[in-house]
Amino acid sequence: MDKRRNKFGFDLMQVRDLSMAGAWGDSVDVLKAIEPSLVNCITCGGCAAACAASANVSVAKAILLLRRGLLADARAALEGCLFCGKCRFVCPMGVNTRGVIAALTFSPDSSGNILHQ
Q: What mean pLDDT, rounded, does the chain reach?
């Protein structure tokens, strides 16, 4: 780590940039290519509050699980979705939640299996 002392006696450190490129894994990179608005989610939970299906369906939770690398759990968080689109109308970040749900539900996982057909 590059530390330099300035004339006031404080340590100055170089700026460290955090790059999220590739941090979500290969399968998530494929999902981001299908639905780019996926990265805009701030996991506020507005989608879960507006959900007509049940209290257990949450796009925000699914995206959070994706960020943790838990693709199967993210898909499970969306089971029971009616695909009505109410979550899309309440999203403050403009995430295309229907696109995220479709990408997660109908795209193949790393072993080539599709969750629903």
A: 77
CA distance 105 to 99: 10
Residues 6+ apart with CB under 8 A from 9: none
CA 26: distance to chain centroid? 13
> Distance between CA 115 and CA 117 in Å, rounded?
7
Gap between the Cα atoms of 38 and 47, Å rounded? 13
Cβ(97)–Cβ(87) under 8 Å?
yes
Let me know how many helices (H) and strands (E) the chain has, helices first: 6, 2
Distance CA 4, CA 83 (A): 56
SS3 26: helix
Question: 33-49 pLDDT, tens per residue?
Answer: 888 898 888 989 899 88
Q: Please identify which residue in the block is written with the tokens 């109410």.
A: 86
Rama region for 98: left / alpha / beta (φ>0; ψ in -120 to 50; rest): alpha
